[in-house]
Amino acid sequence: MDNARVADVRNTVQRMVNDILSCPDVMTNLQQIIGFDDYTFHHSINTTVISLILGVGLRYSEQQLTDLGTGALMHDIGKTKVPEAILNKKGSLSKEEFEVVKCHTQYGFDSLRKASDLGIVSAHISFQHHEKWDGSGYPRGLKKTEILEFARIVSIADVYDALSSPRVYRGAFQPYEAYEYILAKSGMEFDPKIIDTFSKKIAVYPIGSGVLLSNKQRGNVVKQNPNFPMRPWVRIFYDNDQQLSQPKDLNLMDHPSLLITAVENM
Known about the structure:
266 residues
């Protein structure tokens, strides 16, 4: 995607987020999330942005994007009724604890369907975002198109951001690991049509990301290669920790032996 198209998508997403946040019922529910848990709040924001990017890629109308984004932002509102000690437990959850966590989808549905400004679509996104394409999800074991398409989108965005974020019980996945996990679950957990859009619209290494290459050179991603999200252009500033007198640009498509081995703060 060229820089102009990236800017168009970014502006659309920003406008949609601003419109969604102007809704009083959204702000009331968002305040609950903010007061409950920092991770859940930031995760909700990230999930919304990713969902909207996918919605733009699917050519949704502005009203559809508003409905999608509102539901994405509220998808985990039910977690405010789950004990924080369970949500932030460092070890594995017991079967009983996991059953408690699973109830957040019902809690979210019950809460959101009562909010007049949010609508039933947001409630169903919260209710269905853990359903899976193959029917192995919860709470109702829905499969394929039985699942609301908006919920299928939010499901992908939810998992991708969760994998990309550090948690008390594990570190964050590397961007390529989270990306490859999502693609590997196409046709099982996730709708293949939406995964196709995900593979084209979500940058594994967003522009500006600091990266370390397998040859110990370090730099920032400056450009994407369409349809090859793991092979961007990188502007190299350091070679084995020695700063270059003049930065140089590498197109990783032209250097198949070079790999991005880590994401860093530059």
